[in-house]
Specification:
Domain Band: 21-178
Largest sheet: 3 strands, antiparallel
Pfam families: Band_7
Oligomer: single chain
GO molecular function: peptidase activity
CATH topology of the largest domain: Tetrahydropterin Synthase, Chain A
Strand order of the largest sheet: 3-2-5
Shape: rod-shaped
Low-confidence stretches: none
Mean pLDDT: 82
Membrane topology: Single-pass membrane protein
Number of helices: 8
Number of domains: 3
Distance between the termini: 164 Å
Structural class: alpha+beta
InterPro entries: Band-7_stomatin-like (IPR043202), Band_7 (IPR001107), Band_7/SPFH_dom_sf (IPR036013), Stomatin_HflK_fam (IPR001972)
Length: 256
């Protein structure tokens, strides 16, 4: 009797173990790639699925977006500047079958591809482009990676360059270059201002020369401005006509 009870208990335990090995529960964001005797049998889930122990096996695949930090890469820009760049890549599995069958460890494979693509793309650009055109570079890198990972059932949603670090000596050199550029622009703006002012003065002189009475009014306006400053010295402008009169008189005297 005791032996029969023990056997019954063992049978029940065996059935429970068999049942536990048969039932799998997958979350909403999970899929199971099913293999029967080593051959692909389909993709199951989410929810409750049943498998045959010792005959079928599954590989769980997470369909959520994976945020992968690309390690810092040392590269040389097109203008021969040593740069340290790191980035972050966002991707997700859209085809669990290919993600498991076509590539081993698709996360590691995507990481390695992102690193080589980052070096390859940024090495073709100058440092100024890396700093000023990140959106364009991010788009180029994403498109290249996504083209390669499509065969693995992986879709790359976005790539973002996080940091572009350069040597301290290059930082100082860039600061000097920026300062020189600002000084150049200041000189150009100053020269353009002087040119415009000279042009306006020339136009004003041409206008005043056509109306002598306007020149006299200008003289009176200048005297009023000087008197308003409470200066002890007042300079009276000498009319140009008087100078011409004295010049003509001197020439007539010389001829006489």
């Amino acid at each position: 009797m005791t032996g029969s009870l023990t056997l019954a208990i063992l049978v029940v335990i065996g059935l429970l173990a068999l049942l536990a090995g048969t039932i799998r529960i997958l979350r909403e964001y999970e899929r199971a790639v099913l293999f029967t005797l080593g051959r692909f049998s389909g993709v199951k889930g989410p929810g409750l699925i049943l498998i045959f122990p010792f005959v079928q096996t599954i590989v769980r695949v997470d369909l959520r977006t994976i945020v992968l930090d690309v390690p810092t890469q040392d590269l040389i820009s097109r203008d021969n500047v040593s740069v340290h760049v790191n980035a972050v890549i966002y991707f997700r599995v859209v085809d669990p079958e290919r993600a498991i069958i076509q590539v081993e460890q698709y996360v590691d494979a995507t990481s390695q591809l992102a690193q080589t693509t980052l070096r390859s793309v940024l090495g073709k650009h100058d440092l100024d482009e890396m700093l000023a055109e990140r959106d364009k570079l991010n788009k180029d890198i994403r498109e290249i990676i996504d083209t390669q990972t499509t065969a693995w059932g992986i879709q790359v949603a976005n790539v973002e360059i996080k940091h572009v670090d350069i040597e301290e000596t290059m930082v100082r050199a860039i600061a000097r270059q920026a300062e020189a550029e600002r000084e150049r622009r200041a000189r150009v703006i100053n020269a353009e201002g002087e040119q415009q002012a000279a042009q306006k003065l020339l136009e004003a002189a041409e206008t005043l020369s056509g109306r002598p009475e306007a020149m006299q009014l200008r003289y009176l306006g200048a005297l009023a401005a000087i008197a308003g400053e409470k200066s002890s010295t007042i300079v009276f402008p000498f009319p140009v006509e008087f100078g011409r009169f004295f010049e003509a008189f001197a020439r007539s005297s010389a001829k006489g």
